[in-house]
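#help-structures
NK: newbie question, is this the right format to request a structure? protein is RIB43A domain with coiled-coils 2
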Amino acid sequence: VGSQTMAVALPKDLRQDASLAKRRHAELCRQKRIFNARNRIIGGDTEAWDVQVHDQKIKEATEKARHETFAAEMRQNDKIMCILENRIKRDRKNLCKAISDFQQSFQKPETRREFDLSDPLALKKDLPARQSDNDIRNTISGMQKFMGEDLNFHERKKFQQEQNREWSLQQQREWKNSRAEQKCAEALYTETRLQFDEAAKHLQKLEGTTRKAVCASVKDFNKNQAIESVERKKREKKQEQEDNLTEITNLLRGDLLSENPQQAASSFGPHRVVPDRWKGMTQEQLEQIRLVQKQQVQEKLRLQEEKHQRDLDWDRRRIQGARAALLFERQQRRQQRDLRRALDSSNLSLAKEQRLQKKYMNEVYTNQPTGDYFTQFNTGSR
């Protein structure tokens, strides 16, 4: 730095500069009010104005010189700051370089105590996990060797693959043989099942025919019963109408309603009476009327008895028909149950034979070779 000394701005100087600037501004405002021809209302002093202008120019020159001095000081200070910053950077760089040289020369990573933890070549320098299957370093807790991870793994795997291939071929041959045997058994089972189906179909056909015959006979019987019931009701209705008509005729023509006593006989004939002289019927007429009523009562009782007998006869015939139909239906059910039991017994025996045959085939298949199995199977089937 040069030997020239420079003034430093103090707070007192700053306050003085501020007051001068304030007075300068007030003076400028006053001059505007005075020298404005439109707004001026008082006279002016030229000499005073010249003095003021001269003073103002001196102040401006002084202020300008002061500002230039401040600017020169600021530039000088900036230069000094740049020089100091460059010196600090250079010193810091030299210090970092000296530290790096010192670390590379006297503080190498290999000399540290924890270098083995961060050594980039540690894996290359280290021994392999195991050098042989009987390495003493391969302890149980190290978990470096498991089942199937020996050094002869490739040869052993090749041998196992060959063994698996032989086993696979043997299983394929056995599967083909068992498949052929299963097909034979399925063919035999299918044939037996078809025979059973034909027998069941024939029995079902017979059952359907029998059921149709029974239904037809029952239908005919019910139809005949309905026709007889309708005819019987018609006859009964007709007979009742005739009886009612006869009864009405007898009552109208009888002595009970005519009231023709002998003393009321008319002179115009025995069949005429005088209404105003009639005093009632005679005893003979009353007896005759009672006799006729008794006869009518007896006739009605006889008709009721005949009707009751006919009803009992028809009820007995209907009960006998229903009983016969019930017995016939029970017989049909009994025959169907016997047929079903016979069919179930046949199916059960065939299923038992088939299960025994299948068990025998499985035992022969598991205990004997293929050739002996076929020989024994043919013998068993015969």
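mod (FA): yep, format's fine, and the tokens are attached above. Strands lie at 265-266, 269-273.
NK: thank you!
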